[in-house]
Amino acid sequence: MRRTSCLWLWCVFLWLCLLGWSCADERRPASTTTRDARVLDAVADAARDAAQPMDAGDEDGGFEDASVPDVGVPVISACRAPEGTLPDQQVAHVGLGGSVTCAVYASGAVRCLGTNTEGQLGDGLASHMSCPSQSDCSLTAVQVAEIRDGLDLEVGNTSCVRRPFGVSCWGLGSQGALGDGVASHDRCGSFDCSRVPVTVAGLGAVIQLEVSDYGHACARLESGKVACWGANADAQLGDGLMSHETCDWAGGYECSRAPVEVADLSDAVELTVGGFHACARRPNGHLVCWGHNVFGQLGDGSTADQYRPVEVLGISDAVEVEAGYCHTCAKRANGEVLCWGWDTYGQVGAAASDSCGGYACALSPQVVRGLADVVDLSSRHTHTCALHSTGRVSCWGNNQYGELGDGLTSHEACANGDCSRAPVEVAGLNDVAEIEAGGFSTCAVRSNCEVWCWGNNPGHLGDGTTTSHGLPARATAF
Q1: What is the pLDDT of residue 62?
Q2: pLDDT-derived band of residue 56, with 50, 70 and 90 as boundaries?
Q3: Domain of residue 465, CATH code
Q4: Environment class of residue 227 by beta-carbon count within 10 Å: exposed (0-12), middle (13-18) or buried (19+)?
Q5: How many CB atoms lie within 10 A of CB 188?
Q6: In a domain, 178, yes or no
Q7: What does the DSSP 8-state code read for residue 121?
Q8: pLDDT in tens, 391-444
Q9: Coil, strand or helix: which one is 236?
Q10: Domain annotation covers residue 323
Q11: Using alpha carbons only, what angle is made at residue 198 by residues 20 and 200, rounded to the nearest 5 degrees?
Q12: What pLDDT shows up at residue 70?
């Protein structure tokens, strides 16, 4: 089986960005999810109140397909729009990729803007012409087709929205990340894609959704089980199997076009997906991870890929977990934030002393200094941000495009440019309700539901330009 490398694909990723391709969002994830787990649980509770349990008591591990009409499950948001704002104008959640941004509105509608070379806008069209020097890109937010009941979303080259009774995805499909079991949809250049949402096969109601920028996605189910689909060349599906089917990415790629159950995991209370790995938090505060591990991002003290979940060493009181491209972070019950894995861009937030193939890494969790009152984390690619109880935001890691948000361009020297191994405060924001780290950019939803973004800007930061900026600016497109 062909093995992929974080480092090799990172070089490809940078090259595609320079060519104007979509270099989209590992949520955060959004998500983890990039949102406070309590907000997600509130959404989940609303969904459960409106629907019968999807797989409770399912002894054989199957996924029940529930095709049920919309019953008006409310969208739960951490922000509050000014009085009189119509639901179709009020942003509830935002999802950020490397070159596409989408928002779920209080009405359940989903709108996206940015690059559309792989169908990422989801409106069914193959031509948007408002971005300079790009053949298919929109500086204005367009309506994703057929979605009026979105609850939460994850954005990348493949984007997915969580709905009351399932998950729908659109965009790049060459690695099976659309999850509908179908091998051919539309064609975006030489790749399979879907320009409109398709339904992920057999999931039913989902509590939490996570999408990687690199071709796989996972869902946390009511039962505590986790199902994953898409790319599996680096064991990221976690079901213990090395062979499912071959997808057409890069001439042949191990994948599963439909969800498979992660092995040895039936009690997940939180889920996060990285570039080629994934992690889950258990009720007892322990963390397990699986997939690619060349930089120690699984936290088990090794650099061996793992086809089944393995426990992160030294953490037994985690209350949140967030995976970036090839690093992982967690918050402990005492408020400490720890990170481990790849550290070439300072994304571990500490001086990593290990070496993984000649590159800086941390094989065990390291404390990120200088953080207090953290209520939420968001990791993507090579930077991480922390939301504080004060409404302020701190970020660390790569600052090549100003994604740290403090307006400075000289912190310390890392590979390919500026970075900070210590958290720096995002300038001008003191009322943030939700934070979302993307590929080389970051967005925040403020308490009044305004969206503000900063960093690399091929057209997806919502300010009507393709000008990158290292300070937050309002995304008026939302």
Answers
A1: 55
A2: very low
A3: 2.130.10.30
A4: buried
A5: 23
A6: yes
A7: T
A8: 999 999 999 999 999 999 999 999 889 999 999 999 999 999 999 999 999 999
A9: coil
A10: yes
A11: 110
A12: 39
Chain segment 176-199, per-residue pLDDT in tens: 999 999 999 999 998 999 999 999
Residue 26 pLDDT grade (very low, low, confident, very high; cuts 50, 70, 90): very low
Q: Which residues contact 84 (CB under 8 A, 6 or more apart)?
A: none
The per-residue b/e assignment along 66-89, b for 16 or more CB within 10 angstroms, e otherwise, is beeeeeebbbbbbbebeeeeeeee
Q: Which two tokens stand for residue 179?
A: 């999850």
Q: How far is CA 468 from the centre of its chain?
A: 21
Domain of residue 164 covers 26-54+62-474
pTM recorded for the entire structure = 0.87
Model pLDDT, residue 218? 99
Q: Is the pLDDT of residue 351 over 70?
A: yes
219: left (phi over 0), alpha (psi -120 to 50) or beta: beta
How many alpha carbons fall within 13 Å on the CB side of residue 82? 1
Mean residue pLDDT across the chain = 88
Backbone φ and ψ for 177, nearest 5 degrees, come out as -75, -10
The predicted pLDDT at position 9 comes to 53
Q: Are strands 91-96 and 306-311 parallel, antiparallel or unpaired?
A: unpaired
* Residue 202 within a domain: yes
pLDDT attached to residue 323: 99
**pLDDT value for 53:** 38
Q: Is residue 11 included in any domain, yes or no?
A: no
In angstroms, the CA 107 to CA 343 distance is 41
Q: Do 347 and 327 form a contact (C-beta atoms < 8 A)?
A: yes
Query: Which residues neighbour 60 within 8 Å (Cβ) at sequence distance 6 or greater?
Result: none
- Closest by Cα among 475, 448, 461, 446 to 131: 461
* Number of domains making up the chain: 1
State the pLDDT confidence band at 135, using cuts at 50, 70 and 90: confident
Cβ atoms of 380 and 26 within 8 Å: the answer is yes
Asked if pLDDT for residue 224 goes beyond 50, the answer is yes
Distances (CA, A) of 262 to 239, 271, 279: 4, 12, 11
Would you say the C-alpha torsion 340, 335, 403, 424 has a positive or negative sign?
A: negative
Q: Distances from the Cα of 93 to the Cαs of 129, 185, 370, 427, 478, in angstroms?
A: 26, 28, 28, 21, 11
* SS3 category, 6: helix
